Amino acid sequence: MIQLNNIEKYYANKGIKNYVLRLVTTTIKQGEFVSIMGPSGAGKSTLLNIIGMLEEPTYGSYEFLGEDVTSLNERKRIELYRNHIGFVFQAYHLIDEMTVYENIEAPLLYKKVGSSERASRIADLLDRFNIVAKKDLFPNQLSGGQQQLVGIARALAAQPSIILADEPTGNLQSAQAEEIMTLFKKLNQEDGITIIQVTHSEKNAQYGNRILHIADGVVKEDVAILS
Amino acid sequence: MFKLNLKIAWRNLWKNKGYTFINILGLSIGMASCILIFIFIRYQLSFDENFKNENRIYRVISGWTTPDNFFESAGTPRPLPAAMRNDFKQQFDKVAAIQASGGIIKVKDESGKERIKTSESVHYAEPDFFEILSFKWLDGNPRQSLSQPNTVVLSDEMADKLFGDWHKAVGKSVNFQNKVDLKVTGIIEKTPDNSSFPLKVIISYKTYLNQARPESTNWGTVSSTSECYVLLKEGASIEDASKSLPQFITKYYKRDNVSKESHRFQQLRDIHYNADLGNFANKVMPKKELYGLAIIGAFLLLTACINFINLATAQAVSRGKEVGVRKVMGSLRRQLIVQFLTETLTITVISLLVGCVLTEVALPGMQSLFKDHISFSIIEHPIIFVFMVILVLLVSFLAGFYPAMVMSGYSPALAIKNKITANAAGLSLRKILVVVQFAITIILIIGTLVVLRQMSYMREKPLGFIPTAVALVDVPSDSMAITRYHTLQDQINKIPGVLSTSYCSAAPSSDSNNESNFRYNGTVKSTFQANTKTGDENYFKTFGLEIIAGKGLSKSDTIKDIVVNETMLKKLNVVNYNDAIGKSIRINDKTGYIIGVVKDFNNMSLHEPISPIVINSDKESYTTIAVKLDSKSILPAMQAIEKIWNTVLPEYVYGSTFMDDKISEYYQTEKIMGALFKVFAGVIIFISFIGLFGLISFVATQRTREVAIRKVLGASTLELVKMLNGSFLLMVFVANLVAWPLAYLFVAKWLATFTYRIDLNIWPFVFAMIISMVITLITVSIRSYKAAVTNTIDALKYE
Ligand SMILES: Nc1ncnc2c1ncn2[C@@H]1O[C@H](COP(=O)(O)OP(=O)(O)OP(=O)(O)O)[C@@H](O)[C@H]1O
Ligand SMILES: [Mg+2]
């Protein structure tokens, strides 16, 4: 599904190149649950952003679903966002002015899903995540864990084939974190959704089936987890 | 403390350079417009000031009530001043007549050779006139200088012109109208530009009476050139004096069943502002127009202040944390308000300085528009400085107070936790202000469109005659000149490029009009008056007038043949115009017969309806020779006409105008209005839209994170631009709805002052809406497009 070849990323500062990623080459297949780990500043978020097409690599090639996306045009990228990729953020990034229900609805509106279809999908998600009672509340009326649930529900609404999550539990307590991780595992195993997450916690990484260890922009280790 | 505030203010302004720039730009343009309007209004209000006893000085006004009309004139019957002096001894200290006129003044040198020949306006005045109005005398005094016949007083400027140096003028003599020699007996200081009394040559009133004019004793004729001024006794009231007027009128006027005479007293300080009555200087500025300008100025300032408030409250959120920290440190709310007001004051003062520069730049344009010398000198007029100080304080307060209240009111806890959102900072107030601002803008756009359309309508409306390429050349009307009329016309006709010529009393459309009572077909006196014009047999051809029944005037010097216009017959209820041919008209004590009917033409400005008109020939009454020219050879033909004129009439002074110039003079006020509307509408549009740009910039920055989130959810650029634009377009749309009825009231009222006017339809309104919406769309789209396409990852990356 994802094919990275010799991805490099650096920031030039006063003529000196500061490498964030060096010659990253890896393949991620459909249905995998990958955790990216490594010390702070190693380049994990950068890598995930490149996979999510939020950033462009300075060098290297990147194929998504067999298509070269290193220099994708705007329309194509929006197309991918609408149909294939869901994001989950550490800071949730819900829209403050919209209710839970409206937040989940937003990607469906962009995808131009019909209203009855929309209603049934949202009802389904609210039900599944046990947040039906909260649907008319605003983000600032929810706890962090609840907000992250909404964030995941929103990412799932458009029925993506892959979810990219940057430290989804970074702001949560361990009990809530566990809940989210179980959810991810379930999504991966039951719905076959590919998941790539960045995490600092060895425990969280165990929910997945593969770990990429990064340090100083280089992939040091690529281990599979046998469950 | 103040110094520290100023330093912080400076840093903050510098930090938000973009918004500061927008604020200063808007405010300085708004303030410059206000200053321009203020110095103009100040100049206009300074007319006829500084006369001693100005509150006791009045001009006598005459009025007539006819069955279907009432009109007034600033003139009085010639015998009135003397009668009033006699009958109002108790109420008035002084009563004086002044008569405006004009003529040729010649000065000879020692050897008796003619040195200067010039045509000047002159005034005959009684000595008392100068005791009522305190002009400055440089030499002589009114009592001695003007009490004898054949004496003249000159302004220093005129004396310099005639004799080289006014000090040498007294005792010398000038020749007037080739008839009398006048001895110079006094010099007055030149009257300033802002005076309704442009006195240059003042001849003693006894000289006027000496000319044995029949009208000097006639109570029945009034010319607007003979005015009468009175000085009320100290302690007396003008209302009491007015009570004696009915008695005065019955004593002197003969009863007449057509019109009823009346008089009233007009205050000196009203003379400059009353457009219906006019004055010697021909400079009037109705107070209504000054108010209109003041309102536009206020609107401009308001628009600029709204920009300021909007940007300041929008920025307030980002200042929230500072407020919280300061409050925790123990700052009082009052101190915070002072600090924020200091920032506003800093911006306002900078704007004023920039505004002064803009004023200086715009001043020449304004002076040429009003054809007046208007001064922007703080030393000459300290009041301008006072105005600017008030302006700065007012703007600082208006623009700064509300944002200061909002910002200083944040609770420290919320502020520090950064929980203040844009909503908290008066989003709805901002919306209302934007609507107000755009409503003002749209009213001005509509106003401008209507004014411009009415102006072009007036330019293009067929007047019923052809005013292009017609020169109006003055001719003297004394008996000596009349004997040379034939020669003059003959020679002018021979000039190549001259198509036809006609002697006449006035062009078809003219601001000098004579109205007379008449009898039609031997019946009783008519209930309305006819406008009389005289012209020779070529009058109709020269002006392109169309005869629609009977025939035009033929070559004759009598008044036997008469041509009337359609309105005349309509008012007399004559349906078939041919029925009128051959009927008699008795007018000005002479009887004539109708030989033709001329198609209606506009005989005054388009403010006025067409008058009933009587045209006949009368050699004695001609003042003008109208010359229709081939438009290709106007310049050489005019030079040739002047040359011939000067050889045929060497004793007189040549003067000429063009018919179209005369007509465009009627609309001087409208032209100025149009120009002002265009300029100020442009300025307001500019101010409003830079304000809008500032606001959308702010909103775009504020919503960066939201834009980023929506982008990863799959929103396209177009969808994002639409989202950011939406509320702005809605606000401008609402502003249109607010503006329409108000604008309708204004323009309908303005148009009502024209008898001939465009039909007010929906187009100016629709057009204003389209303009405002399109400009809004462009303004906000530029900014929101930029917001939608910038790489938004940073907004999501760290938090
Ligand atoms: N815009 C930028 N300009 C310069 N350097 C940058 C920029 N963005 C990121 N970096 C650098 O790139 C490196 C990798 O950043 P990245 O966010 O990928 O780290 P990370 O592994 O996600 O760290 P953490 O675990 O703290 O989230 C860091 O050293 C960071 O300083
Ligand atoms: Mg990171």
From TrEMBL, chain A:
<dbReference type="InterPro" id="IPR017871">
    <property type="entry name" value="ABC_transporter-like_CS"/>
</dbReference>
<dbReference type="GO" id="GO:0098796">
    <property type="term" value="C:membrane protein complex"/>
</dbReference>
<keyword id="KW-0813">Transport</keyword>
<comment type="similarity">
    <text>Belongs to the ABC transporter superfamily. Macrolide exporter (TC 3.A.1.122) family.</text>
</comment>
<keyword id="KW-1278">Translocase</keyword>
<dbReference type="InterPro" id="IPR017911">
    <property type="entry name" value="MacB-like_ATP-bd"/>
</dbReference>
<dbReference type="InterPro" id="IPR027417">
    <property type="entry name" value="P-loop_NTPase"/>
</dbReference>
<dbReference type="GO" id="GO:0016887">
    <property type="term" value="F:ATP hydrolysis activity"/>
</dbReference>
<dbReference type="InterPro" id="IPR003593">
    <property type="entry name" value="AAA+_ATPase"/>
</dbReference>
<dbReference type="InterPro" id="IPR003439">
    <property type="entry name" value="ABC_transporter-like_ATP-bd"/>
</dbReference>
<dbReference type="Pfam" id="PF00005">
    <property type="entry name" value="ABC_tran"/>
</dbReference>
<dbReference type="GO" id="GO:0005524">
    <property type="term" value="F:ATP binding"/>
</dbReference>
<keyword id="KW-0067">ATP-binding</keyword>
<feature type="domain" description="ABC transporter">
    <location>
        <begin position="2"/>
        <end position="227"/>
    </location>
</feature>
<protein>
    <submittedName>
        <fullName>ABC transporter ATP-binding protein</fullName>
    </submittedName>
</protein>
<keyword id="KW-0547">Nucleotide-binding</keyword>
<dbReference type="GO" id="GO:0022857">
    <property type="term" value="F:transmembrane transporter activity"/>
</dbReference>
TrEMBL record, chain B:
<feature type="transmembrane region" description="Helical">
    <location>
        <begin position="760"/>
        <end position="782"/>
    </location>
</feature>
<feature type="transmembrane region" description="Helical">
    <location>
        <begin position="728"/>
        <end position="748"/>
    </location>
</feature>
<dbReference type="InterPro" id="IPR003838">
    <property type="entry name" value="ABC3_permease_C"/>
</dbReference>
<keyword id="KW-1133">Transmembrane helix</keyword>
<feature type="transmembrane region" description="Helical">
    <location>
        <begin position="290"/>
        <end position="317"/>
    </location>
</feature>
<feature type="domain" description="ABC3 transporter permease C-terminal">
    <location>
        <begin position="295"/>
        <end position="412"/>
    </location>
</feature>
<dbReference type="InterPro" id="IPR050250">
    <property type="entry name" value="Macrolide_Exporter_MacB"/>
</dbReference>
<feature type="transmembrane region" description="Helical">
    <location>
        <begin position="337"/>
        <end position="363"/>
    </location>
</feature>
<dbReference type="Pfam" id="PF12704">
    <property type="entry name" value="MacB_PCD"/>
</dbReference>
<feature type="transmembrane region" description="Helical">
    <location>
        <begin position="675"/>
        <end position="700"/>
    </location>
</feature>
<dbReference type="GO" id="GO:0005886">
    <property type="term" value="C:plasma membrane"/>
</dbReference>
<feature type="transmembrane region" description="Helical">
    <location>
        <begin position="20"/>
        <end position="41"/>
    </location>
</feature>
<dbReference type="InterPro" id="IPR025857">
    <property type="entry name" value="MacB_PCD"/>
</dbReference>
<feature type="domain" description="ABC3 transporter permease C-terminal">
    <location>
        <begin position="679"/>
        <end position="788"/>
    </location>
</feature>
<dbReference type="GO" id="GO:0022857">
    <property type="term" value="F:transmembrane transporter activity"/>
</dbReference>
<feature type="domain" description="MacB-like periplasmic core">
    <location>
        <begin position="20"/>
        <end position="246"/>
    </location>
</feature>
<keyword id="KW-0472">Membrane</keyword>
<dbReference type="Pfam" id="PF02687">
    <property type="entry name" value="FtsX"/>
</dbReference>
<feature type="domain" description="MacB-like periplasmic core">
    <location>
        <begin position="494"/>
        <end position="640"/>
    </location>
</feature>
<feature type="transmembrane region" description="Helical">
    <location>
        <begin position="383"/>
        <end position="402"/>
    </location>
</feature>
<protein>
    <submittedName>
        <fullName>FtsX-like permease family protein</fullName>
    </submittedName>
</protein>
<feature type="transmembrane region" description="Helical">
    <location>
        <begin position="432"/>
        <end position="452"/>
    </location>
</feature>
